[in-house]
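Q: Given only this backbone (550 positions), what sequence would you predict?
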């Protein structure tokens, strides 16, 4: 394919696009997009450090054996920078795995340059993420600056010589580790959930030339990707065709406020707010435009200058402190020897570079310079955390137990999945009991708590009928009770025919109708049409005269 006359390469899953625009920015790039994903999704960017500003005059061409992007004045914007001599007929190829490569000749299989050696923020199946021991270089993931700017951001995922991954902030501070690789268990020691992995096949290679991890997908129909996100988290996403969106079902670190430097200097992080970052009292956003793009790394600046040092007084104004409650302060303070809180405050005021102090349990702590990693937590929770959600995955009558006072308890959490509050779905191929499984289980996509809602609805039908939802009748046919119940409700049939015959048609019709309606609501094929478990008790107890939405 002639790259100068064909500005894109197309494969079933991926697309090489010349002059790719990201969001609403004025930056243009040469990059690789997912081809059959309705949401424009970038897998790789070539010129992330030097975007194109005039896409009509820029060119992508092969020159002297290199792939080159030039601007309108023919000045190079980006190049593969190969210095070794190669064939005069170099060929550019976008391979099936998403690797964009230069081949040494039209019929050659020798790769002389490849995008898999120059990863951006995305790790695709088949790519190596590790260390080249011969060249002492690393394949690492580096975040974008924000969702409109593909320039390298402050966060990187990198393999260490100890066979564990670190997430780095500006390559100076690491704040998360996977733990070393356990070759017997085939997991990272600090990522135990890999034991229940049914999606990826991870491989670790360590020899005299290189040390790296790579992975493949057991089911090739699942489109997934790992990204080093500009939020500072490594995120694992899969494409859900039904909802037409990328689903996040795992990220590390799990809590946003565990990301080093997330809110920048003098920013405070809170898990209980949607924006996560705010400025401390007396400070304002350094760059409001970047904050609007969820790039908080620039932090905050003072709105009032300090008088600075030795308890200085200017115009009868003296530096003072603002008390902050329910705060987790930064690490590594200085601890001067003082005898009281007043002396601790004075010790900080004596230093022009001191910005904060704390006094607790006869210990004085003072912080110098910019304050990073200040976290605010919920006063109602000593840890400042929100409880995770458990998806039971096997709701059925046999797993509902009654105590001596007939109070129901859910039992058998053998298939349960733990889902943090930052996730909307969790992917699992484990199976519950047939007859109670939501449709999304069958399709193999990531499930939500609405899967338990579906199972609960099926169980409500069995409470009404006193028998299994699918049973063979005397004529040999299998009847599906939920379908029959839904027909009775919509067509105005005799609902007492649905009732367990052992009750002798003795039931409160309003309550029976209410339960049947809620059961039908719970077993909708589309999970977005089902109620949440929090809505169900209210709906079951609501009088029919007020139930307009069910």
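A: Predicted residues:
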């Amino acid at each position: 394919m002639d790259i100068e006359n064909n500005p894109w390469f197309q494969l079933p899953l991926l697309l090489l696009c010349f002059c790719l625009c990201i969001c609403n920015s004025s930056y243009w790039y040469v990059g690789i997009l997912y081809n059959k994903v309705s949401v424009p999704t970038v897998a790789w960017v070539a010129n992330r450090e030097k975007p194109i500003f005039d896409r009509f005059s820029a060119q992508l061409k092969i020159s002297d054996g290199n792939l080159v992007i030039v601007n309108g004045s023919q000045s190079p914007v980006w190049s593969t920078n190969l210095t070794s001599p190669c064939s005069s007929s170099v060929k550019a190829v976008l391979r099936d795995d998403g690797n964009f490569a230069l081949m040494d000749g039209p019929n050659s299989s020798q790769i002389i340059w490849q995008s898999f050696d120059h990863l951006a923020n995305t790790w695709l199946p088949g790519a190596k993420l590790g260390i080249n021991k011969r060249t002492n270089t690393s394949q690492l993931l580096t975040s974008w600056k924000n969702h409109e700017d593909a320039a390298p951001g402050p966060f990187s995922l990198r393999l260490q010589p100890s066979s564990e991954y670190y997430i780095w902030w500006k390559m100076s501070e690491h704040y998360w580790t996977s733990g070393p690789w356990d070759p017997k268990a085939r997991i990272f020691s600090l990522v135990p959930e890999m034991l229940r992995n049914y999606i990826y096949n991870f491989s670790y290679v360590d020899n005299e030339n290189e040390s790296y991890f790579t992975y493949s997908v057991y089911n090739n129909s699942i489109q997934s990707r790992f990204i080093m996100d500009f939020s500072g988290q490594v995120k694992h996403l899969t494409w859900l065709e039904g909802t037409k969106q990328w689903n996040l079902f795992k990220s590390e670190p799990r809590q946003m406020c565990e990301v080093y430097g997330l809110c920048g200097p003098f920013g405070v992080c809170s898990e209980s707010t949607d924006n996560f970052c705010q400025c401390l009292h007396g400070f304002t956003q350094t760059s409001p435009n970047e904050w609007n793009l969820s790039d908080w790394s620039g932090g905050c600046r003072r709105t009032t200058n300090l008088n600075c040092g030795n308890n200085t007084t200017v115009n009868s104004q003296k530096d003072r402190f603002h008390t902050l409650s329910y705060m987790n302060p930064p690490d590594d303070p200085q601890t001067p020897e003082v005898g009281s809180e007043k002396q601790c405050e004075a010790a900080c005021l004596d230093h022009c570079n001191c910005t904060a102090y704390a006094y607790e349990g006869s210990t004085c702590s003072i912080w110098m310079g910019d304050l990073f990693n200040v976290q605010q937590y919920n006063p109602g929770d000593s840890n400042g955390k929100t409880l995770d959600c458990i998806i039971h995955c096997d709701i059925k009558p046999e797993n509902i137990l009654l105590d001596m006072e007939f109070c129901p308890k859910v039992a058998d959490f053998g298939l349960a999945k733990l889902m943090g509050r930052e996730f909307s779905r969790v992917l699992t191929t484990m199976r519950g009991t047939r007859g109670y499984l939501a449709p999304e289980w069958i399709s193999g996509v990531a499930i939500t708590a609405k899967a338990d809602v579906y199972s609960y609805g099926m169980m409500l039908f069995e409470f009404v009928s006193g028998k299994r939802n699918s049973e063979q009748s005397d004529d040999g046919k299998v009847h599906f009770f939920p379908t029959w119940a839904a027909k009775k409700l919509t067509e105005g049939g005799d609902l007492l025919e649905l009732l367990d015959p052992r009750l002798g048609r003795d039931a409160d019709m309003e309550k029976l109708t209410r339960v049947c309606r809620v059961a039908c609501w719970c077993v909708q094929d589309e999970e977005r049409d089902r109620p949440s478990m929090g809505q169900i008790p209210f709906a079951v107890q609501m009088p029919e005269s007020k139930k307009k939405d069910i």
